[in-house]
Fold this sequence. Notes:
Blueprint: H1 2-19, E1 25-30, E2 41-47, E3 50-51, E4 57-58, E5 61-67, E6 71-76, E7 88-94, E8 97-104, H2 115-118, E9 119-123, H3 145-150, E10 154-155, E11 165-167, E12 172-175, E13 183-184, E14 190-191, E15 202-206, E16 218-220, E17 232-235, E18 238-239, E19 246-249, E20 252-255, E21 267-272, E22 280-286, E23 298-300, E24 312-315, E25 318-319, E26 326-329, E27 332-335, E28 347-354
Parallel strand pairs: 10-12
Antiparallel strand pairs: 1-6, 2-5, 2-7, 3-4, 7-8, 8-9, 11-12, 13-14, 15-21, 16-20, 17-18, 17-21, 19-20, 22-28, 23-27, 24-25, 24-28, 26-27
Amino acid sequence: MLRFKWWILAVTIASGLSQVTPQLTAIQDTLYNADGTRFNGVLAISWQAFDAADSSDIAAHVLQVPIANGYLQVQLVPTTNSSPQVLYSVTYSGDAGVQFSETWSVPPSSTPLRIQDVRVSSGAGSVITPPGQTQVIQIANVVGLQNALSVRPVMGTGYASSRAAVIDALGGLDGVIGNPADCVHVDGTSGACGSASAPVLFVDSESPGGTIDGTNASFTLANAPVPPSSLALFRNGMLLQPGPDYTLTGNSLQFVTSKQPSPGDVLQGSYRLAGSLPGVGFVDGEVPAGTINGTNLVFTTAQTANPIMSLALYRNGLRLRANVDYSISGTTITFGTGLAPQLGDLLLCSYRVAQ
């Protein structure tokens, strides 16, 4: 009776052990030499310690698998779902010693797999990675990796988080140095906005300093217009003329006697400051060519406005409306029917040109 109880206990223990046996994948294949003869030798399969998918603890080991007449048959624990995912290192040894090595990645499978189903890489003269060590794979051994790395931006020495990116002289990504409110220039430098990033400066609708009381004739602009002809000075919306209405010296305006601004008048001036914009020119205060006789409708400018709508055309100080009072094509200005300039009228225009 006692022996029967010991037998029941042994079966129970054996049954429990069989339940923790990890799943295995069979690898079966026939190996040949390059001359067509069947391979005879030994496969040394080594691996690092890992946990199988069912949490079985797989210890690091080296397994020697004999190959007779080319026939290979071995069962291995799958590694594609292991923790961590590891590779089997396989070395082929024949009559001439170690011939080559390769690595295997074994997936779970209920049917036998061939070597081509598990092979990851191979190479003549490769060395097996001993258990507990890592295997170094050279960049040149990964197809296409070197080309991909060559076109990939790299982190420069000045790279910084939360900064605008700029490409340095070596092609690396650096962070722009400067204050948070600075503007970034094309060359990657930074500075106060409106400095090097805007070489041409415009002043629009400035109210000249001075008392408007009907007697004061002297007024002052914040800056000296450059060139002086760029100043467009308006009084109650009417364009005034340098000479007949005022004179400009530096940033000082002097109105002609009897033409001093009166209380309630509004003075506004727009002008340019020193600077240049590559490819852009300015024409100021040009008198279009053409006869002013009350019937002539066609006048011409000295150059073609670019863009065409940059043309500002004034008649006796009042700005005219494009496509309403006149039309323009190239250098030709054509007034509408019944809108021909009359004797004594003064035409002036300003516009931009391409250089």
